Structure to design on (220 residues):
């Protein structure tokens, strides 16, 4: 009986997490992001990850290289870092710089020179949620969390006790400093991605990797 009794706190915690899973923080049009006033709610993004965007008709084939600015960690009052330490923010920013830079480089050679035909891409890390170690992994297998996460996977939604990351991308014509496109996105791993449940930042880092792929798609 004692083993069964001792399992109640974990079961209660899991039940509470599943009931509140839909209450995860959603991104906002962060006031400190330069192009936020030009963005509108995005109703065209089928993935459901892009919350706000600004778009102009762009022929990306007119561009032959790109500048990727250093990632900015957003400091505004409307930032959405949930129990994320300054060191963890720096770790996420470094990962974002690496994976977004690599993704852009697969589409355009990177440069630091502003010349005709050059894009400038500004990246702002605006928020993150950490995963709950052990519990997030456990809920992929237990009788309550397993079915919930299967449904979330089918819906493309966030898994239980799993972290996420929010960020802004602004793409400019570098010589004219003309805004071509911008968007605010929130990313998280597939809810059945067991590997992304290990470590407090694993899910957020996986989300950044998905976001890097998303950016490359935006440049096609």
């Amino acid at each position: 009986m004692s083993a069964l009794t001792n399992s109640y706190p974990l079961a209660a915690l899991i039940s509470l997490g599943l009931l509140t899973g839909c209450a995860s923080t959603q991104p906002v049009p962060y006031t400190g992001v330069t192009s936020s006033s030009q963005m509108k709610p995005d109703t065209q993004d089928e993935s459901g990850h892009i919350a706000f965007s600004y778009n102009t008709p762009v022929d990306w084939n007119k561009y032959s290289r790109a500048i990727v600015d250093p990632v900015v960690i957003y400091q505004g009052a409307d930032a959405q870092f949930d129990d994320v330490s300054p060191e963890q923010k720096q770790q996420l920013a470094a990962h974002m710089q690496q994976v977004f830079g690599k993704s852009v480089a697969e589409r355009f050679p990177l440069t630091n020179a502003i010349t005709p035909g050059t894009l400038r891409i500004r990246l702002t890390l605006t928020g993150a949620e950490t995963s709950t170690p052990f519990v997030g992994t456990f809920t992929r297998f237990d009788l309550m969390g397993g079915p919930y996460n299967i449904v979330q996977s089918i819906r493309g939604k966030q898994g239980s006790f799993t972290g996420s990351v929010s960020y802004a991308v602004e793409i400019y014509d570098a010589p004219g400093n003309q805004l071509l496109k911008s968007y605010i996105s929130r990313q998280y791993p597939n809810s059945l991605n067991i590997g992304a449940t290990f470590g407090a930042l694993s899910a957020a880092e996986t989300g950044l990797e998905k976001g890097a792929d998303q950016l490359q798609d935006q440049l096609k």
Q: What stands out?
A: The longest strand covers residues 118-129.
